[in-house]
Specification:
The structure is a single chain. The chain has 463 residues and is α+β, with helices and mostly antiparallel strands. The chain is 34% helix and 18% strand. It has a domain of 132 residues. The longest helix has 19 residues. Bound molecules: flavin-adenine dinucleotide (FAD). Flavin-adenine dinucleotide binds next to helix 10, strand 14 and helix 14.
């Protein structure tokens, strides 16, 4: 069997792509699309990466996930008990964001919805509500909302008013009440191409797959000899028996628009309307002096105008570490999600740097040796009421399947893990049609793990 991967960009990795760039000081480094956290609950993504590196030696743990808020509150997720619900109880008990006075005012009946999540049932109950509405109904402590928003909803690149409350509830489940791994994560210890994509590409090529980069697919039509004629831009059509559309939302929208023979009209109409999240900016700065030694590899920030997190790359990435050791500087990355549509990139870059000076004042006097910025808008949006319109892995065409983090997967997974899980499920659909065995798929339990909380939630939902 012949398998070909056609990738639009010059390198693999999508939103975790990387490419070489030469800094003003003459050093060639790898710039990437930005910091990514590989949570321990990412079972299917880890299984995929393990095919190229069974020991996952390319990942290194970060010891904590600290969060600071402009109001002076600080939270950490390391050192919590592993077992749910005690992990959530301990967080609330030790966090300054959950003052006892405000906890007493919580609407227990509404809060129970967050404590008993089942997938996909939670979407039937909460998808029509937005994340802010849910936390308001719960009377979630005001000071703790930044935790919910910064950690969960902003990581969906959306204003919480434009995010389905069900998606927020699934995140609570994945990281607290449904699993024991908590909010701790690993990161690649080299830039993404070296750590992840080059080894995975070699693995695929050893198995006989053909990988073509710089090969955008313009349209997919019915074929003459085989089921599909795939047309790469500027090249002749090639015919295949089956197709996996593993694009981002923009890519799927464009293919549905340009391919009148793809699946059925109703499916194409939904694909054309897939909503996208607002723009976001990733700024990486090579500074001429180090940040203070206690600065962590990753810091979530709440309450700032646009800054969502800061990472200090020499704490975990080999290339940045050797640049910092040689020059005595620091490599710092700033992320700003959910920016205004049509925002001014130059102005946003300046705002991010000014916010970095507030969070890490020692950077105010630092010179910027060089900088790279990526203003993009290629993440999916999960608006209230949108669950029913999400594409599934299977389509009305039995030989056409879809994968990606925008795809509906009836398991408690999100982001990179949703992309990896949907990819495995899509492959399994095709393998089963060929009479071949599929690959195992795992997730944290689909329901809350605490029988008492489940019973209480059912009681609270009674008519
Ligand atoms: C700044 C940032 C930080 C993030 N942080 C995290 C994090 O900490 N943890 C986490 O889990 N997730 C994080 N994410 C989300 C994560 O990047 C995505 O969930 C993941 O990359 C989705 O993978 P995907 O394969 O669905 O899509 P993508 O990675 O977007 O890949 C889709 C691919 O399809 C290609 N393509 C599109 N159209 C065509 C076409 N017509 N022909 C050929 N190729 C095409 C694209 O070029 C791209 O390579 C972050 C995202 C961003 C932007």
């Amino acid at each position: 069997m012949r398998t070909a991967v056609l990738e639009r960009e010059d390198g693999l990795g999508g939103r975790l792509r990387g490419w070489p760039t030469t800094l003003r000081d003459g050093t060639t480094v790898t710039m990437t699309r930005g910091f990514h956290a590989f949570f321990r609950q990412y079972y299917n993504l880890r299984a995929l990466l393990a095919r190229a590196d069974p020991g996952l030696g390319m990942l290194t743990p970060l010891p904590d996930y600290p969060l600071v808020h402009t109001a002076g509150l600080e939270d950490r997720f390391a050192g919590l008990p592993a077992a749910p619900p005690w992990n959530a109880v301990a967080l609330a008990a030790r966090s300054p964001s959950f003052p006892a006075r405000e906890l007493a005012g919580v609407n227990i009946a509404a809060a129970l919805q967050l404590l008993d999540v089942d997938v996909p049932g939670i979407y039937r109950r909460l998808d029509h509500v937005d994340a802010v509405e849910l936390l308001t109904a719960v009377r979630f402590p005001r000071s703790a909302r930044h935790l919910a928003f910064e950690v969960f909803s902003r990581s969906f690149f959306a204003d919480p008013r434009r995010l389905s409350a069900a998606e927020l509830a699934v995140m609570f489940h994945v990281y607290f009440l449904g699993s024991s791994e908590g909010l701790l994560f690993d990161v690649p210890s080299s830039p993404f191409p070296q750590a992840l994509w080059d080894p995975l590409a070699e693995h695929l090529e050893r198995l006989g797959a053909e990988i073509r980069t710089g090969a955008p697919v313009d349209r997919v039509d019915p074929g003459a000899r085989r089921r599909f004629a795939v047309r790469p831009a500027g090249g002749p059509a090639e015919e295949f028996d089956a197709v996996v559309l593993a694009t981002d939302t923009g890519g799927l929208r464009a293919l549905a628009e340009a391919s009148p023979g793809l699946a059925v009209p109703a499916w194409r109409e939904l694909a054309k309307r897939l909503p996208g999240a607002p723009p976001f900016l990733v700024s990486r700065l090579w500074l001429d002096r180090p940040v203070r030694p206690e600065r962590p590899g990753f810091l979530g920030t709440g309450g700032y105008p646009t800054l969502d997190n800061i990472s200090v790359l020499e704490r975990y990435e080999d290339q940045a570490r050797s640049w910092a050791a040689r020059t005595g500087g620091s490599v710092v990355e700033l992320h700003a999600y959910a920016l205004a549509e049509g925002c001014d990139e130059r102005a946003e870059r300046g705002r991010l740097v000014a916010q970095m000076h507030r969070v890490y004042p020692e950077t105010a006097g630092a010179g910027i040796v060089d900088e790279r910025h990526e203003l993009r808008a290629d993440c999916p949006l999960f608006p209230p009421g949108g669950f029913g319109d999400r594409p599934r892995t299977a389509t009305p065409d039995p030989w056409l399947v879809v994968a990606g983090d925008h795809v509906r997967v009836d398991l408690p997974v999100a982001l990179m893990e949703r992309a990896a899980t949907s990819g495995t499920l899509a492959a399994n659909v095709l393998l089963s049609r060929w009479g071949l065995r599929g690959h195992p798929v795992r997730s944290v339990p689909r329901r809350g793990r605490t029988a008492l909380l489940r019973a209480l939630a059912r009681w609270a939902r009674r008519p």
